[in-house]
Amino acid sequence: MVEIFKRFFESNDNVVIYVCDSSDDRHFARKRKFDWWFWKYNDGSIVKVDGVAVIANFEIYNSLLIHRENKLADKKINAFNTLNERADERADPK
What confidence tens digit (pLDDT) does each residue in 38-84 have? Predict the structure, then answer.
């Protein structure tokens, strides 16, 4: 698994967003596992931004992984944060 991520991020332009499945109420355990993997294997070249999308009082843990040298990193991180902040709005348009 680690080798797949290393190869994927050989291109500084690539971005990963993952969602911790919550269908069995184990989403926080999944988040902790991903956090541990990131801490153990990250060589400092990848930035991880954690988010929580709240939809109808239901928390969905997610994270963005982006190469530190991605030229559009700030814009992509801002877009990721905005999507999480507005998740409930998008699910229930008024």
Answer: 999 999 999 999 999 988 888 899 999 999 999 999 999 999 999 99
- How many distinct structural domains can be found in the chain? 1
The closest alpha carbon to 38, from 16, 22, 54, belongs to 16
Domain that residue 72 falls in: 2-91
| Alpha-carbon span 91 to 88, nearest angstrom | 5
* pTM of the predicted protein model: 0.85
Distance between terminal CA atoms of the chain?
Answer: 42
What's CA 75's distance to the chain center, in Å?
15
Give kind and range of the element (H or E) at residue 45. Answer: none
